[in-house]
Amino acid sequence: MMLGDSAKAVLEAEIAAGNGRFRGIRHSSAWDADPNVAHMYATRPKGLLLDSTFRKGFACLAPLGLSFDAWLFHPQLNDFVDLARAFPDTRICLDHCGGPVGTGNYAGRREEIFPIWKASIQEAAKCPNVVVKLGGLAMCLLGFDFHLRPEPPTSEEAAAAWRPYVETCIEAFGPNRCMFESNFPPDKGQCSYQVIFNAFKRIAAQYSEAEKTALFSKTATDFYRLKLE
Fold this sequence. Notes:
Blueprint lengths: L6 H12 L5 E3 L8 H4 L13 H7 L8 E4 L6 H10 L5 E3 L15 H15 L5 E5 L20 H19 L4 E3 L12 H12 L4 H15 L6
Parallel strand pairs: 1-2, 2-3, 3-4, 4-5
Helix pairs in contact: 4-5, 6-7
């Protein structure tokens, strides 16, 4: 996207190379001043989603029928909402429940940070062009210590830890704008693929069959324009 207007030619080449399979892009904007949070993203520019050149590139997506996946940390959600409002015709997926952070300077502050994150999620949900991916919660970013324990978590333990985040997103966006995701292999740091999806099934047990279908497949197939046999 930092190619600005020139991004259009690259996107058109990717569409051609995809032979009908290319749906959109993800341009990571994850950034934090604390290197213990940012890690590999420490070199990303601050305020990327507000950057005028980035937005010129972003403007190329909707005319080409392409979507955008956004990966960021929760303190950046205000920038994300500003972007979504500025481009209401662009389909946007907010990855990993909006990136709630519980490491570095945010460690040990879950009770303080959760309502701030929740308010930002509720604001993002007001943008009708935005959907949210439910997952990425087994990354160490969230601040749980599962990776330090002698045994990995069970699906019951994972579900208990993640439920507040997942249910907040579903309540704000509705099942038809939420999709479960694996985020594997980054999630492998704390538990297995099977544990992740069994935890999701436990969290989703309270919803209707139609809502479960949306959460586990329909939202994704609609957003990415997929056809299931």
